[in-house]
Amino acid sequence: MKFFSFLICFCLIFACSDVNTELENRSFHLADSIFNAHNIAYQYEADSLCKSLEENKMSYLVDSIIEVRRAEIKLLRKL
């Protein structure tokens, strides 16, 4: 009788663990797929934001250089 109850408990434990493992594998695979799909979109958005920021910074730098040069030209004309 003890052997029979042990066998039933043994089967139940391993039956449950296989189902959970399969569900965990599916969950991890699904989560990984979702992450990869969204990561591409996020990467594209981050690249476009960096490019926009770089263009704005470059525009500011050029405007600053032009302003400095105009001030120097005004000073030279006064001499």
Structural category:
mainly alpha
Helix content: over 70%
Oligomer: single chain
The number of helical runs is 1
Please outline the major beta sheet.
none
Radius of gyration: 33 Å
Shape: rod-shaped
Q: Roughly what is the average pLDDT, rounded to an integer? A: 81
In whole angstroms, the N-to-C terminal distance is 113 Å
Count of strand segments:
0
Question: What are the segments in which pLDDT stays under 50 over at least 5 consecutive residues?
Answer: none
Beta content comes to under 5%
Order of helices and strands: H
In short:
The chain is mainly α and about 80 residues long. About 95% of the residues lie in helices and about 0% in strands. It contains 1 helix and no strands.
Keywords:
mainly alpha; 1 helix; 0% strand
Please tell me about this protein's structure.
- The protein has 79 residues and is an all-alpha fold.
- The chain is 97% helix and 0% strand.
- The protein is built from one helix and no strands.
- The chain is rod-shaped and about 115 Å long.
- The mean pLDDT is 81.
